[in-house]
């Protein structure tokens, strides 16, 4: 994981995406699935996912698509939401990753 993170230095963070579902109740609700967040970096998508088997682990990997991880009721619609305009300092600027700081190593020990 640390190698993946360190390889991001110098690349452009394009967007931050949350996946979830749309519930058409009145009022309609977007319910994000916060166990996974996707970073669009250049032309690749990096998935940050909570490891459900432990309490502190974060799984980091490149993926091709956003994963649907739940069984959905028929009236719900799977969707995604861009958070880049809200979370990035300057959404239209370069947003180049300049530094990665890692506080834990691959085994979970503090560095």
What's the gist of this structure?
The protein is mainly β and 111 residues long.
With strands numbered from the N-terminus, the spatial order across the biggest sheet is: 4-3-2-1-5
Number of helices: 2
Instruction: Give the radius of gyration.
Output: 16 Å
- Coarse shape: globular
> Helical content, roughly?
under 10%
| Poorly predicted segments | none
Distance between the termini: 14 Å
Give an overview of the whole structure.
The protein has helices at residues 2-6, 84-87; strands at 13-23, 29-41, 44-50, 58-63, 77-82. The protein has a 5-stranded antiparallel beta sheet. The longest helix is centred in the N-terminal third of the chain and has 5 residues, at 2-6. The two termini are 14 Å apart. The model has no long low-confidence stretch (mean pLDDT 82). A hairpin with a 5-residue loop joins strand 1 (13-23) and strand 2. With 111 residues, the chain is mainly beta. The chain contains 2 helices and 5 strands.
List descriptors.
111 residues, mainly beta, five-stranded antiparallel beta sheet, 39% strand
């Amino acid at each position: 994981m640390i190698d993946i993170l360190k390889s991001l230095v110098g690349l452009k963070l394009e967007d931050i995406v949350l996946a979830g579902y749309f519930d058409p109740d009145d009022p309609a609700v977007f319910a994000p699935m916060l166990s996974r967040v996707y970073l669009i970096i250049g032309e690749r998508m990096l998935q940050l996912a909570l490891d459900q088997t432990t309490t502190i682990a974060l799984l980091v990997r490149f993926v091709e698509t956003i994963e649907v991880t739940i069984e959905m009721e028929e009236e719900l619609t799977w969707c995604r939401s861009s958070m880049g305009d809200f979370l990035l300092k300057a959404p239209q600027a370069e947003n180049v990753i300049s530094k990665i700081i890692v506080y834990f190593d691959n085994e979970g020990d503090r560095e």
